[in-house]
Amino acid sequence: MGQRAPTTILVVDDDERVGRACADLFARQGAEVTPVASGKAALERIRRSPPDAVVTELDLPGMDGLTLLSQIRRAHPDLACVVLTDVPSARSASQALRLGADDYIIKDADSADQLRRALRRALRSRARETEVKQLLVEMAELNEAFLEEMGNLHRANLELEARLSPPTARTGAWRMLVVDDEAPTVELLKALLTSQGFDVDGASSGEQARALFAEHTYDLVLTDKNLGDANGVDLIKEIHAVSPETRVLLMTGFATVESAVDAMHFGAVGYLRKPFRDLDEVIERVDEVLDDIKDEREKARYNYQLRTRNAEFVNRFKLLKTKLVTLQRASG
Question: Which pLDDT does position 67 carry in this prediction?
């Protein structure tokens, strides 16, 4: 880590003794003091290389200290400035402070200690003000970037929605489980769904079903409501305890409004009537469920993308806000 640069102080006074005294005073603190004898020389020096602080007399040749202070403030509003004068007056003190002087000190026996304390306060205050301004600029830039990113994400979301079309049911990427205590029903549905390109397992009991979904993750389970060794409703609860994302279609021979409500209440996304009069209806119902799964996964990916992209902005904003509040409290 590099060493911190020394504080630079410009002393403006036509009395050379003042410049030497300030050099001796601040040399103990590792500061670099540059004395000049006029306001014109001071402005030229500041133009070439702005110091950290300026100490100026009011009674200067060619340009008085108040005029110098006014020009410094216009060009360098964050520069620490202290007036040190042997021609004090209430009027000049008021003008100096109004023009932006950080302090007004009368040359006397105690002026050295006063000047040291005044410059320390001024430098600390100006540093805080500079950091606050920088933080506000960074927050403004961050806000602009955040709004731009939000706009990009919104447009991306609209494009994503525009691209969403009914998914192909025969992708071969879906894994399904058929559970029914009637073996012919299991074989019928396995053959039907396999013919559509799905990866299908079958179980003829609750015990077999548990063993299968303990080893595999299924996108969709079709289960009968009444199994020989288990209740289909209880099986739904067990499936969702292991895999909450798995969809379940409940098969029942009593297709009524009450059946549909019960199926939803039990955690199923719908039901299928038995016996199956039209196998196309089974495929259509399965396709509807898969459409819902695809849509939900697309939305989940978008929400994840939104959270991860915004996380950096939020963290930076919180950090800047914390720094800003700390500096404002310290300035209070």
Answer: 94
